[in-house]
């Protein structure tokens, strides 16, 4: 019977359970469990990255070259799961959406009423970006948008801390719009050859 990897509190290295053989994660494991960090919105990014790197090192295919085919498959599957967990938990919006999902809440289009004021604000930012002619203008918009995303991340952390899930939903809706704008900014920077700061 296969079990899962658990973390040693002292070493920050995954401990392989039962006969030092790689085991499948439990079905009920969350991304927080997989990486071995506290299930909070305010996850420590340095701890997250450190644990991710240690896990990836432990799961590297070279470590399993002399193992059974099943253990090789488990290693590959686990590595993919660790990558998905890290990618999700690293990004504030994805982390928040995942935390909502763990609570049985989603942000499907049409399920949530979006504030007309938010739509107007985002439309104005998009127009401002479309009209930006030079590097200084694009960078100014990028800085303002990053500040807005950082503020929304702080608000999301407070909402999750207070277990105010409806508020967290509203904040993450805003975050989705500003994150979309951030992607457009990055595209324009690439098109115009503007270096990231």
From TrEMBL:
GO MF entry, a single one: ATPase activator activity
Pfam families: DnaJ, HSCB_C
Annotated ranges, domain J: 30-102
Keywords: Chaperone
Keyword Chaperone: yes
Family matches, as Gene3D superfamilies: DnaJ domain, HscB, C-terminal domain
GO (cellular component) term, any one: mitochondrion
Classification via PROSITE patterns: DNAJ_2
One example of a Gene Ontology biological process annotation: [2Fe-2S] cluster assembly
NCBIfam families associated with the record: hscB (TIGR00714)
Family under the similarity heading: Belongs to the HscB family.
Protein name: J domain-containing protein
């Amino acid at each position: 019977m296969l079990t899962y990897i658990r973390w040693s509190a002292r070493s920050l290295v995954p401990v392989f359970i039962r006969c030092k053989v790689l085991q499948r994660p439990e079905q009920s494991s969350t991304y927080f469990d997989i990486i071995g960090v506290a299930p909070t919105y305010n996850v420590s990014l340095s701890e997250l990255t450190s644990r991710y790197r240690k896990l990836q090192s432990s799961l590297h295919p070279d470590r399993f070259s002399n193992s059974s085919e099943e253990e090789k498959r488990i290693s590959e599957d686990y590595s993919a799961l660790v990558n998905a967990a890290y990618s999700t938990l690293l990004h504030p919006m994805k982390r928040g959406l995942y935390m909502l999902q763990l609570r049985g809440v989603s942000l499907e289009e049409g399920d949530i009423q979006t504030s007309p004021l938010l739509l107007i604000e985002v439309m104005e930012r998009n127009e401002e970006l479309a009209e930006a002619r030079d590097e200084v203008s694009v960078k100014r918009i990028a800085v303002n948008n990053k500040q807005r995303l950082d503020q929304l991340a702080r608000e999301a952390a407070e909402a999750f801390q207070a277990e105010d899930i409806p508020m967290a939903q509203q904040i993450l809706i805003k975050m989705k719009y500003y994150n979309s704008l951030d992607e457009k900014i990055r595209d324009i920077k690439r098109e115009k050859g503007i270096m990231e700061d």
